[in-house]
């Protein structure tokens, strides 16, 4: 089954690496890439308005300028209850214990991935 995936990252190199890892994995997927959380929220609001399903997975850079990953999640969940069906993976080069503890309060946060994302990690996520 084809997976719908959104990547939210302001770093072009990281965007490319994440997209490449997903493309090299076993997953048949449609990939949407957004530079900012606000851009992603606009796209997701548009999906909701036209009745398109939300992505199956969102990979988002946790610590980014502007709207960070946590604020994005709160705003995404406010669009529709269906947003809670999307599996969220945070991308970061460093993940603190505090961030991991905070994730426990979000049922859709399925994990944290070190950057750059690897094909093996993607395969583990999609298995």
Automatic annotation (TrEMBL):
This chain's source organism reads Arenibacter certesii
Set out the biological process GO terms recorded for this chain's protein.
phosphorelay signal transduction system
Q: Where is the Response regulatory domain?
A: 4-127
Specify whether Phosphoprotein is a keyword of the entry: yes
Residues modified to 4-aspartylphosphate: 61
Q: What Gene3D superfamilies does the entry give?
A: 3.40.50.2300
User: What is this protein's record name?
Assistant: Response regulatory domain-containing protein
Alphabetized, the UniProt keywords read: Phosphoprotein
Supply the InterPro entries for this chain: CheY-like_superfamily, Sig_transdc_resp-reg_receiver
């Amino acid at each position: 089954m084809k997976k719908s995936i959104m990547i939210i990252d302001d770093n072009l190199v990281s965007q490319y690496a994440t997209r490449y890892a997903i493309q090299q994995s076993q997953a048949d997927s449609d990939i949407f890439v957004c530079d900012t959380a606000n851009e992603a929220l606009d796209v997701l609001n548009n999906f909701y308005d036209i009745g398109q399903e939300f992505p199956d997975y969102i990979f988002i850079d946790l610590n980014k300028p502007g709207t960070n990953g946590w604020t994005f999640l709160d705003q995404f969940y406010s669009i529709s209850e269906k947003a809670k069906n999307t599996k969220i993976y945070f991308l970061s080069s460093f993940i603190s214990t505090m961030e991991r503890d905070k994730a426990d309060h979000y049922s859709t946060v399925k994990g944290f991935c070190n950057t750059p994302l690897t094909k093996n990690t993607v395969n583990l996520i999609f298995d």
